[in-house]
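dude i think i finally got it to work??
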Amino acid sequence: MTMATSPSPPTSSDTEGSIEVNPPHPQPQDNPSKINQLTKSRSMIARFNGSSTRRHAELDDEEGKAQFFLTLLFASIEDSAGLFAGTVLFLVVWAILCSFGAQELRGLAATNPGGAAEQWLDDIESCKNAVSIIGTLFVFTLVFRFNACYDRWWESRILWGDIISKCLELGMMNRRWFANEELQDRFSRFVIVYSYACKSMLRGKSLTEEGEDGPDLVKRGLLTQQELDLMEGVPCWQPHFCLDMLREVIAQLHMIPGGKGLRMDDTNKIHGQLFRCLDNTLKHMNDLIGSCVRIRASGLPASYDAITMTSFITFFLLASAVWSTAIGWMTPIVVFLASMIIMFLIVMGTKLVDPFGSDKVDIPLECFCATIEAQVHAIDQRGKSIIAVASNSKKAVRPLAVRSESKATFHIPRLA
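look at this
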């Protein structure tokens, strides 16, 4: 990667799950060693972002642009295809039988006016209002259930947005306030591992299981094999293990004599407030994963599903009989289309109940974790660049000129 002759800030970009950042600081022009160091940092981030893009699947919205909407619709219910097809087929067969029965009644009524067949037709047609009331009640139960399912999905999306924000907040506090480079690196590593541990736990797995990210994190240098084995061996949730490690790093920083673990010495009044700020952020991260566990473990009451399916079947059994006397053989077509749409809503709501899986409708945890990893790396490199620029001579700093010539650019893909 080459550098422009004009002042140009270091850049970090990730086309899949990161942000392209151009910090508004001038590049030192009179120090080739610093320029080479920043160029290497850029190259490292670019290589990381490329591997992150290859390592994670495409986003749902990017993948959906290249697919027909019906293909995506049926793909979203592939796990429930048996229930979907069986229910619709049963109702269509019943509608065909009702249409056949209505046709026979009309034939008998034509040959014997005023007879029992005509009376049956009149009685069935008079049930329209009652069926409409049952249909209204069914719609209420369907909408109520789907909204409850969607609220769970939406809350999980908000929670993971907060997880991303808090992880990046910790990364920035780490590089701005901590003074020990070894502890800084360890802190950044466990901020990243925390997100992957949350993803694995919310899917009922461990980082060490086959197909999970543990071995890959070891290969990328974010965990040692000893740390991974320890995470597997201790009887606790793995995200909490990461939070404990972050607290241990903070404790080790405060135990460095003379307050040298932080950039502000112990005589500075801010020094004592930093621990409270960091601990509050860690407490919030603990609350976030606890809320995610609550969503995954609680589920919906069984009565929601029972009342929805009962009212669904009852309505279409009665409606098919009533509709058949009015629209005849159009009844199976109407029942097929209406029941298919309703089954889509029922199955879709069922999938939204657990938003942390790997279905197309679930939130993209892989992309969220990749975003956190890429941006923590970018924060680490940006922190070193900012220190290098800030320590430069005042002649190299032109805030007004930089503000007009260099603007921060951001590229955040729409995740969902």
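Confidence is low (pLDDT under 50) at residues 1-35, 37-61, 395-416.
im so relieved honestly
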